[in-house]
Amino acid sequence: MASQGWCADRLEGWLKKNPNKRAKDARDKLEGDYGIKLKYSKAWVGLKAAIEQIHGKYDESFQLLVNWKAQMEAASPGSIVELELEGTKKHRFKRIFFALKPCVDGFLAGCRPFVGVDATALNGKYTG
């Protein structure tokens, strides 16, 4: 009987090269490479553990994003960092927007002012 760690260790390199593979593919690979019989559920758990080994745990990754936002605000005062989350009980990342203060200042200093006209009638030679 294969353990979760054993499956994950053997699937990690293969999964890096084939990130779209599913549990059935993982089971077929392990059965073919090692001549064992493996339940689908064990392959699924091993695949999830391998993904966690590659990318890290979800909660830790999420916390890194929150920490990064706080660090950017502290290191570059005046920068805009917006982190949008979904869900009420369990937060889920939706999107992030950031504009660093030096970039905003450079944009404002380098742009020429313009006049925008909306919904007007043209008179004279070119009407419309």
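The record above closes out task 2.4. Task 2.5 opens with a second protein, given below.
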Amino acid sequence: MRVLAIESSTDMLSVAAGDASAVAERAERAGQAHAERALPLVGAVLAAQGWTLADLDGIAFGAGPGAFTGVRIACGIAQGLALGAGKPVVPVGTLAALAEDAHRTHGATRVLACLDARMREVYVAAYERDGEEWREVAAPAVLPPDAVLLPAGRWFGAGSGIALSGALAASLDGFDDALVPSARSVAALACRAFARGEGVAAEQALPLYVRHRVALTAAERAAGARL
């Protein structure tokens, strides 16, 4: 299963092309330049594997939650490449990808994935590993950091949102707040999804935002409303 994956839900941009035997990945801190840098990285990882778009079985992207612009960029590029090459797409949740990163780097099997969502909130979900798959224990949500409740048991924390609550960090069985979702993990989860027949047409591959508002109206601001 040959998969191209794009992940840009944080200020890090990563792109990976891989199959069961090898993965080529490029990652960089792109800031606001995700759109400009993504396609050159796509070309680099495909060249590293000796593949073209026609050689792929499918394309995946980090579907969110995360930075709205970054998620939309990854979705749009994946859709465009898939439409042009006639390939199916799998949207992969960024928090699930973060759990996969925690497993690969720390061996964690019960992961609280938590990313800074700005505006005094975090994106959070909990996953437990069952063999090669992840079981969603708590669905992705957006919450104030101190409102995050751990499911019963011992959990490893992953992502930038962990450090925003001292109480949360103290309740975890270890954490790594420097982890970000990677295209390598998006590709790994996508390979399993494609094998299950979960690929969809490009136009059906949609982001997962969780938070649906990022700004107040002028009237709301004048009335003192806060997000």
